[in-house]
Specification:
single chain; mainly beta; six-stranded antiparallel sheet; two-stranded antiparallel sheet; 8 strands; 62% strand
């Protein structure tokens, strides 16, 4: 996993969160994408980058925020990771 995160928030801002727009879809059966635009009053500056593999919903996430508005893009695998067998588990195949 690679994660980089930088943030500067406004602790005096009123709690004001609102999802302004979101959309998503799929590239293939297991690879999906999501885009989101939101308002979060506490955010002054925020940059977040994450790339994960071999874990549940692994993929790429990019989040940028400036002056209370944020945009996020995610490309991920919908499957769960089986740590015992070191492989992906499709929905319907997972048993506790």
């Amino acid at each position: 996993m690679i994660t980089l995160h930088l943030s500067l928030s406004n602790p005096w801002a009123k709690d004001n969160f609102k999802n302004l727009w979101c959309s998503g879809g799929s590239f293939t059966k297991n690879k999906h994408w999501e885009m989101e635009f939101l308002r979060h009053a506490h955010t002054f500056i925020e940059l977040h980058f994450a790339y994960t593999t071999r874990e549940d919903h692994a993929g790429l996430k990019l989040h940028c925020g400036l002056f209370g508005y944020c945009a996020e893009i995610s490309v991920y695998d919908r499957r769960h990771w089986d740590y015992t067998n070191n492989c992906w588990i499709n929905y319907g195949e997972y048993h506790e």
